Amino acid sequence: MIPKEPENHTKKCSKCGIEKPLTEFYKNKRSKDKTTCRCKTCLRAIGNVYYQNEEHKAYQKAYNNAYKQNKQFKDKKKVYNKTYNQSEKGIAFYHSEKHKAYRKTYSQSEKRKAYNKAYQKTYQQSEKGIAYRKAYQQSERYKALRKTYKLSEEQKAHNKVYGQSEKYKAYRNAYLKTYRQREKVKAYYKAYYQRRKGKTTGKELDTT
Ligand SMILES: [Zn+2]
After folding, report:
1. How far is the CA of 19 from the centre of ligand 1 (A)?
2. Per-domain residue ranges for the chain?
3. What separation in Å is there between the alpha carbon of 29 and the centre of ligand 1?
4. Distance 50 CA to ligand 1 centre (A)
5. Distance 37 CA to ligand 1 centre (A)
6. Using one digit for the tens of pLDDT, what is the confidence trace for 102-117?
7. Ligand 1 centre and the CA of 48: distance in Å?
8. Ligand 1 centre from 41 Cα, in Å?
9. Within the chain, which residues score under 50 in pLDDT?
10. What are phi and psi of 182, to 5 degrees?
11. Which pLDDT does position 51 carry in this prediction?
């Protein structure tokens, strides 16, 4: 095989038509002469136009976002995060003042509170949450706790104040309003008043 001397070989660019040395062409394994048919200058010009194109930018952004949502990427990131968190660097960062401050701000943020609330609600309504609560209420531990449960003086004082607060009154009024509107409750009261009516009129007088 004759050793390649690119400088001695030239090729005509299919775009600009200029005869240029082979070093002025990119390598392309798929083409016959292993170089691109357009010269580097011409390809670069196309490339620059293409990459500056708004459409391409939008496409790249969408692609990146989709990639981040990709399960494979998420799994990879999970593994990476785990390794990082367990690494010396990661542990040091976790204990750093910067991260401490970040945790503090985040735990007090509205975002975190909303997340916690939503999470608790879904959990409590989930099969798992319901089953857990049921099991807990039937546990010996819970029964024992209930037996020994006594309010501390502090809690008693707190409840007293809370019971007289406007906040509690508003809560109770709202609760009673919806409570009385329940069909079952309505039926119960109706029956109750009818019984009372019967007792206070004729019947009671008859027996005495
Ligand atoms: Zn060219």
Report:
1. 9
2. 6-55, 70-108
3. 19
4. 17
5. 9
6. 999 998 899 899 999 9
7. 14
8. 6
9. 1, 3, 5-7, 202-208
10. -70, 140
11. 66
Task: Provide the pLDDT for residue 127.
Answer: 92
Distance, CA 55 to ligand 1 centroid (Å)? 25
CA distance 85 to 46: 44
Determine the topology of domain 6-55 in CATH.
Answer: Wheat Germ Agglutinin (Isolectin 2); domain 1 (3.30.60)
Residue entry with tokens 């004729």: 202
**1 Cα–ligand 1 center, Å:** 29
- Contact by Cβ (8 Å): 39, 24: yes
Say how many Å lie between the CA of residue 2 and the centre of ligand 1: 27
Whole-model pTM?
Answer: 0.30
Round to whole Å and give the CA distance between 43 and 76: 35
